[in-house]
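Justification of resources, computational component.

The compute hours requested in this renewal are based largely on the per-chain cost of generating structure records like the one below. Each record pairs the submitted sequence with a full structure-token output. That output is archived, and it is also reused by downstream analysis tasks.
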Amino acid sequence: MNRNELNPDASRQAAYGARLRSLREARGWTQEALASRMDYSSVHVSAIENGRKSPTLRFSRSADRAFGIKGTADAFEREYREIKYDGLLEGFPEYVKHEGRAVEIRLYNMGIIPGLLQTPEYARVLADSAVQRDAITPEQAEDRVSFLVERQAALARPRPPMMFVTMDESCIRRPVGGADVMGAQLAHLIEFAKLPNTLLQVAPCEIGERRTFDLSVNLLTLPDRSVIGYAESQAQGNLDRESTSVLPMLTAYHQLQAEALSQAASVALIEQLRKGSP
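The structure output for this chain reads:
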């Protein structure tokens, strides 16, 4: 039987495959034996070991159970997440780490509902649309949705952060997924606005040139009261810690809030759209 030589230094994906083979062989298991323990085919295991296929969250968790390393520092799930971060925009992985411990979160979005406020169905439609455009694979779509759910869950803690969300009017007027999906998403926004730690505002189209951002922007206030800024375009993300550039972003955010509708007026507009009123 031919045995391909693996180069774990070629990439994180290659290192993942090489370690999978190493642990398997250390236990004296064939690919078929490991596959049966993981509920996968031996062909799939071989493809992962040889770097022909990317590991998924499900595969990684199954491998952790098979090897008895679930939840440890050596878990394949941890390694999978590092691989997944390779495909994210620059700065975003570090941003997400801080997001989970922020005491205040300020979001501004254009075009689509902010990820932290998306329903699973809304997020699924966006991910599936990216698959149809060949922008991502079906497995990456699954990862994208599950990753978003994890981000949302990280905010459901005993002392949740204060969340300020200002959305361009285009976010709530752009139809995504049809009437049922969009209606449920708008209803979710209304419920979000009722929480004691949230402030939801819509920036109407009429503010024109007084809109202070042309890109989606996230601002995090950390426990030590330092502020981190993150902004991204279609192809690039940027995490900024420098107060000389982050503080003007915070000022611009406050200026945008002053131009936006009040929460009451914003919720009323969302309710009108949910009911089908113009």
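The mean pLDDT is 89. The first helix runs from residue 12 to 26.
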